[in-house]
Amino acid sequence: MLLQLENTNPENINKLLSFARENHLELSVVDDINGSHFLPGKPLTPNQLTQIIENSRKSGMLSMENAHKEIRNNF
User: Can you list the pairs that 30-35 forms with residues at least 24 positions away whose Cβ atoms lie under 8 Å?
Assistant: First the structure.
C-alpha cells in the first residue's frame, strides 16, 4: 500500500513510523531526500482514468497487463 501524506512535517512522519514499528507493521518512506519526501511518478489524468474505466467496462474485465502498462507509463 502506498500512502501519500500532505501538509505534514518530519516529526509527524517519525511518529507514524514509530507507531508502525510498535504495531509490527512494515512502513518505510519512499524517496527520502534531505527531509523531502516524494512519491514516484505522477497521478493519472482524468482522461487516462476515464479511459481505464471505459476499457474495463467494454471488455468486462481490464487485464492486469493493461492496468500495469497504464500505471507504468505514468511513473
Answer: 30/2, 35/10
